[in-house]
Amino acid sequence: MVAGDMMRIGIDIAQIERFTFVFRPGGSAFYQRVFTVAEQETLGENVELVTLCFTAKEAVSKVLGTGLSIGVPDNVSCREIEILCPSGLKQPKVGLRGRAQQYADKLGISEVMLRWCRNYGFAWSLAGGASDAATAVDLRSALERSLREVGMNEAWQSRWRQ
Amino acid sequence: MGGNCRRSGLLTRGVTTMEKGVFLRKLADVLQVSPDEINEELELKSENWDSVAMLATIALIDEQFGVTVPTNELKASTSVGMLVEFLQRAVRDASSGT
């Protein structure tokens, strides 16, 4: 990095069992308001994916320094941070909209990246925001090293559909 | 509190007994307790009253009553009874426009 380059990191972890309520009657409102239609098409009724996607949103919100909300004016809404996997689950992509994008712009973040995994019944997400392409390369590498540190390897990923 | 809650509706009203029953049954799912276990004495502790539960409760209130409440106002509830009181105030205030 050189002076002026900037990176921000956010992490979140959640127990997968905690999210089983999402597929009960009391969880439907949460599912509909937290996840975008495009996300719901990917998630289906897969509780591991739901948990990962939620931790990803939380981690990205920490990069932005905002937290998540539902329907509160001036706060970043859960659906303004979209997590999609057009190239498979190994390579999740982050899309920002509305106030989430405004916060990123204010912070000078030009690229947001995400790495995630699940292990021992928990879902983990590490998100990073970088101000430029060179910093993004460093940050991506740091995120991947960090995931390995928490005990992840390729074995679990290979069990996931591509 | 009411100033931060919004509801689209014209009539000033509270929460009916039937609406409260529906809300509590769904809240049981969020808190991961059986419908038989949920009552107004049930404490909201860190084990069940986490950030996910609060967001899910906000979603329930929005779905059932059309009222938006901020997370920081839910945090003060330490029991289901307090949460129900908060809900009743939020619905009443939002529908009266206060």
Q: Can you tell me the residue ranges of chain B where pLDDT is under 50 for at least 5 consecutive residues?
A: none
User: What low-confidence regions of chain A span 5 or more consecutive residues with pLDDT below 50?
Assistant: none
Question: How far is the first residue's CA from the last residue's CA of chain A?
Answer: 33 Å
Number of helices, where a helix is a run of at least 4 consecutive DSSP H or I residues of chain B = 4
**Main sheet: strands, sense, barrel of chain B:** 2 strands, antiparallel
Biggest pleated sheet of chain A: 3 strands, antiparallel
Largest interface: A-B, 25 and 21 residues
User: What distance lies between the first and last C-alpha atoms of chain B, to the nearest angstrom?
Assistant: 9 Å
Number of strands of chain A: 5
Helix/sheet category of chain B: mainly alpha
Shape of chain A: globular
Report the helical percentage of chain A: 25-40%
Give the strand line-up of the largest sheet of chain B: 1-2
Mean pLDDT of chain B equals 86
Percent range for β-strand residues of chain A = 15-25%
- Provide the structure class of chain A: alpha+beta
Mean pLDDT of chain A: 88
The helix/strand series of chain A, from N terminus to C terminus, equals EHHHEEHEEHH
Shape of chain B: globular
Our estimate of the beta-strand percent of chain B is under 5%
